[in-house]
Amino acid sequence: MGIFDKLFGKKNDESESPKAKPEPRANTVSNSPHVDVRISCGSCNGYYKIREGKYGVFAGCSNYPTCKSTLNIPDFILKYIQNYGLNIYRWEKECYKCKKKTPVYSYYLDYDLADLDELFSLGGPTVGLGDLSYIDDLLSKQISTIQLRYSNTTKSKYMANICEHCGALQGRNYVVDDPHEIIGELWHDRDMGKYLYTNIKIKDITPLKMDIKQLYAQEE
Ligand SMILES: [Zn+2]
Ligand SMILES: [Zn+2]
Q1: Number of folded domains in the chain?
Q2: Model confidence over 173-184: pLDDT tens digits?
Q3: Ligand 2 centre from 159 Cα, in Å?
Q4: What is the pLDDT of residues 152-196, one digit of tens each?
Q5: What span, in angstroms and rounded, lies between the C-alpha atoms of 44 and 21?
């Protein structure tokens, strides 16, 4: 069982489905991670990296075994967001209904986390608009085409992009789960910066805790 089978066991099935992320290309690794994206150890001059232990996957200090400081994965990710903020990306897609180009917005936390540890690019949940309610609320207050919509399929409300021309819902499938049909090259070349819209600074990560813990919960 691989390291990410344990960390992200719930998502394993998706790797078999057509909507799974395409395999990273060979040149992906050389372009990431950015060496300066690191979470400093709280106890020494090391930094945290993903490790596998008896009780699952966690972030441990690079100076192990001298330093035994650890973080659980959700706290590791929360510290990343606290230090580096959350990138919001904006790109344009053709509205399926009116066929005009409309902007769509999302964060791609899984993409950003690959800067922190390339293991994040190998698996794990896709995290975008609709997953972090605190961020979704912030975005919907600033961007008029991000609105709360009701899904008949899941019988629940969720935040989504709508077409700026005709108001049609631009489904999560095309924006968050599988944006690769349009931006795939940039995704794999670690070149999504082209579509960077803004970076939201989040000093107090408390409102994100519950969502991050649920998304990155390890199976018992
Ligand atoms: Zn340390
Ligand atoms: Zn439209």
Answers
A1: 1
A2: 888 877 655 667
A3: 17
A4: 777 888 899 999 999 999 988 888 877 655 667 787 788 888 899
A5: 36
